[in-house]
Design goal:
Length: 316
């Protein structure tokens, strides 16, 4: 959509090709981020692409983990040195919950509170937010852009009239945000429910010996490795990064899940560097979550029973 509206191009900053990369935890390491960004900027420059900004999702989507403050500052230093805008999408900022099995957990720190004054000029820092995720209200659409860049604000204001938020929606949100008692109770309850639903999904994954990124503690999803279901293996051994997976296989498995009555998002939609990873969301009613994982389990068992081939699968 960015290319259609503004002629912009999104360029992923890969980590696997960076020297010293060991695994997904390195996505949150300050030095690894600096190296990945420097390498990507150099390649883009050589390709004749002019880079204007760095965009991050914090908490990370799809890994479901918050960036440490020092990593945010290192990304900001990179932007400051290269006169690039830093755009932080913080739409899951309040959706942080407890996962007792996670290690090296860091609390959510917005770029607005990460102490960036010595890293980057403030007019280059922008935050995007929306009410749909943290407040479970995708129908009451309201987006927020925080920036001190007067030029950017003027440009956005000139086009925002085409997507104006209805006044009744603005009034509803104003009443909610001014109700401190409601906000406190809602955030507490939401974190409890997220932790409970994550535990339900984690138990299912552990029971079926399905690898997943375990240091998750934010967002409403889990990053799951389903590569072993894309090959005609004789035994359900977890695949390794050396296994070759193509896009057609990924799509076939996605469609098989659909026929089973469950949606599991393809990793390619999130810029994965290893096809075969999928994002499973648990932000649904508990009954719906249990039905969904039951259907998923039945479908995966069917794949195992038919010799690990991606064929048809019916929901129970």
């Amino acid at each position: 959509m960015s290319a259609v509206r503004a002629g912009g191009v999104l360029i992923p900053a890969p980590f696997k090709s960076v020297e010293g990369y060991r695994g997904l935890d390195d996505v949150f390491d300050p030095d690894m981020n600096r190296k990945a960004l420097e390498k990507t900027l150099l390649q883009a420059t050589q390709d004749g692409v002019t880079v204007r900004a760095v965009l991050i999702s914090n908490p990370h989507n799809p890994l479901g983990r918050c960036y440490p403050a020092e990593t945010v500052r290192e990304i900001a230093r990179f932007c400051g040195r290269n006169n690039l805008h830093l755009i932080s999408d913080e739409i899951f900022a309040l959706s942080v919950y407890q996962n007792e099995q996670a290690t090296n957990v860091t609390p959510f720190v917005s770029v607005l509170g990460a102490g960036l004054d010595e890293c980057i000029d403030s007019h280059l820092v922008h935050v995007m937010y929306g009410m749909g995720k943290d407040f479970c209200a995708t129908g009451l659409r309201l987006g927020v852009l925080h920036s001190t860049n007067e030029g950017l604000i003027a440009a956005v204001s000139s086009i925002s009239v085409f997507g104006w938020v209805p006044y009744v929606v603005q009034d509803v949100w104003a009443d909610m945000l001014e109700d401190e008692q409601f906000l406190g109770d809602f955030k507490l309850e939401n974190r409890k429910v997220l932790a409970k639903h994550f535990t339900i999904l984690r138990s299912f994954l552990d029971e079926h010996n399905i690898p997943y990124y375990s240091n998750v503690h934010a967002g409403v999803f889990v990053w799951v490795d389903l590569r072993r279901y894309l090959h005609a293996n004789s035994a359900p051994e977890p695949a390794t990064s050396a296994v070759d997976v193509n896009h057609d296989q990924e799509v076939k498995l996605f469609k098989r899940f659909l026929r089973a009555g469950v949606v599991v998002s393809q990793g390619s939609g999130f810029g994965t560097e290893e096809l075969g990873w999928y994002r499973i969301s648990f932000a649904v009613e508990e009954q719906a979550l249990n039905v969904g994982i039951q259907r998923l389990g039945t479908c995966l068992k069917s794949i195992e029973n038919d010799g690990w081939r991606i064929e048809s699968c019916r929901s129970p």
